[in-house]
Amino acid sequence: MSQFKDIITEKCPVCGESHVFTQKGNPFLFKMPKMKKECDVCGHKFEKEPGFFYGAMYVSYGLTILEMAPVFLISRIFIESYNATIAIIGICAFLLSTFNFRLSRMIWMYIFDGKKKKQEVHN
Ligand SMILES: [Zn+2]
Fold this sequence. Notes:
Keywords: Membrane, Transmembrane, Transmembrane helix. Pfam families: DUF983 (PF06170). By secondary structure, the protein is mainly alpha-helical. The protein has one domain (about 1-120). It is built from four helices and two strands, in the order αββααα. It has helices at about 1-10, 55-80, 80-95, 95-120, and strands at about 20-25, 35. A two-stranded antiparallel ribbon has the order 1-2. The longest helix has 26 residues, at about 95-120. It starts with a helix and ends with a helix. The chain binds zinc ion (ZN). Zinc ion binds next to loops.
């Protein structure tokens, strides 16, 4: 449960102390979130190798599907036009883009490095 909290609050997967992102990003200003290269507290390198975060795109895709399925269903209840539904889905996907960017990278990092924290606690 603490890992879930650390993912949501965007803390380092190893120490859980430092924030991973310096800027949260803003879709209205077309600003992407900015990430630190390594943890301020434990020195853990977030991007293990070049292209490490390509895998986070698949996590982001899954997140977007999970978010847009209810948007689709709810909009289909109230709106008959498919074009309007697609426009609503596009707007929602755009508004959630920076959130999904950050959350998908956090989940991706915790898939690979989240267990290191547990091992250090038990040793
Ligand atoms: Zn750390």
